[in-house]
Amino acid sequence: MSAPNRLFTRLFVLVWFAGLLQELAWSVMVHFPGFLSDLGATETRIGLLYSLSAVAGLMLRPMLGRLMDNVGRRPVLLTAGLANAVAVAAMTFVTELSPFLVILFVGHRVFQIAIFTAMLTLSADVLPEVRRTEGLAIYGLGGLVPLATGGAIGDLLLAWGGFDLLFKTAASIAILSWLLVWLVPRQPSTAAGGPRRGFFAALGQRNLLPLWLLTLLFASGIEALFTFIRTYVDERQTGSVGAFFLVYGGVAIVVRLVSSSRLDRLQQLPLVIVAVVAYAAGMIGLGLAATSVQMGVAAACLGAGHGLLFPILTAQVVTRARDAERGSAMAIFTSLFDFAVLTAAPIVGAVIDWAGYTAAFAGVGVAILIGLVVYTVWEHALGEQEREPSRVS
Known about the structure:
single chain, Growth Hormone, Chain: A, 13 helices
């Protein structure tokens, strides 16, 4: 492999480990609703707090995109990384529901969003274009491993030292990631010059629109799972949340490892179709599952779809966006997951109350399949030239 196309450079490995640590710090915080519940918060208040953080994240996305494009990824990571660690560490001083807790939690979520977006963008910056999808697939393993293990690690931390230990551990891991970012060069392959049209120009860019649609549908499925899998397991009395995410994350990791080296050599549209069909089948299967085995099969389908789809979508966004607007495009891409929290999660919850989990999860799966048809037609309508990489800086 020629040097310019080498994947595992020192810089990529450094960014990978920094991203892994941030994802691990994020994943153990999945237990935070339990902390709120211990302080006396109702499910409604917990939901409102998470919704507030999603709104704050969406409102700040245009500014985040501009900062990444104009100032760079590294300054964003250093500022948000330190602020996030401080916010999480400060939670050890919270003893009651208060405005101070709200500020800390919303700040933590917003800073973590900024870190995730900037780190993902930086990983794309340091990869050779001809191996970008493969590289993003490998980078994403740093998120899948914590997804599969974070809940269990959090369980151990809570058993050993309660939420104080969990918050201190999460903050310490975040600081380790922050220290690694200091080793990243100041300008590690950022876009060169050129006019920057801004966040909303990237939002409306014609060849990015079908990607926004498919990403929003994918995000809606993810948010439906993360929001309601706990109550789903409780109601059906089958399987467990830990086992579900172990299978989901484990299969996603295997698929990512097996497919990563081939992603840049194969046609992207057929791969997207296979991945989305697998994910939709998993949602429908989860709605119909009546046994632990059936739930495990559904989790495997969901993990396979996730493992294959996310790096392809990410690489397509990076490829089609103008180089000088890559930060804004990635800010839009990640904002769709927050938007799904505010839109899909309440709708799915209402369907669960009205018609049950089968109708809700199967309905999400059917909606994703319908969206896939629209996406496929839209992609063909764009034509090959518009699907080519943007060469405008």
